Amino acid sequence: MSAEEEDKPAFSFYGVNFGLKLPTGEREVRNAEGDRAERTLQPGTGTTDALLGAFYSRLLPNSDASWFVQVLWQKPLGDKEDYKPGPRLSLDAGYRYEATDRIGLMIQLNALYQKRDRGQQAEPEDTGGKFLFVSPGVGFAIAKGTQIYGFIQLPLYQYVNGVQLTADWSVVAGISSRF
Fold this sequence. Notes:
The protein is mainly β. The chain has one helix spanning 3-6, and strands at 12-21, 49-59, 65-76, 88-98, 103-114, 129-143, 146-160, 170-177. The protein has an 8-stranded antiparallel β-sheet with strand order 1-2-3-4-5-6-7-8, with no helix packed on it. A hairpin with a 4-residue loop joins β4 (88-98) and β5 (103-114). It starts with a helix and ends with a strand. Mean pLDDT is 90; it is low at 1-5.
């Protein structure tokens, strides 16, 4: 290793995230008999939610790797039809290795805590929980600053209040761009 490589600095990035989740998603899903499904089973909540978070990322010196940590809090700002989903807090930590100029191999731990829903249309006894997932994945650079990525999310721990549906695994895919 040359002296220049030994002195290669590590770069850190940090910042805050904030925004709104708008009230999207269907709230009128019905079964075969025409009965409207419970609010907790509807794809949309009908609420606008505040999002607030922070992140930190560090490129590791003398390597093609980096790590990150981020936290995100999601809080409904009101209710819709006397239903208010529980606030949620997520914490993610991960490691990325640049296998080639265009391919990155990744692994993440994802923790989620969700409080119980509230309101006349809520079923608080069957909502909320604590979750921990491991998520291996891959990213592919399609242009400078733009990548497509995919993860398989595998549960390490799932605790739900009452009776709820949980998945044995899930897939997350997307595209990200920096500008």
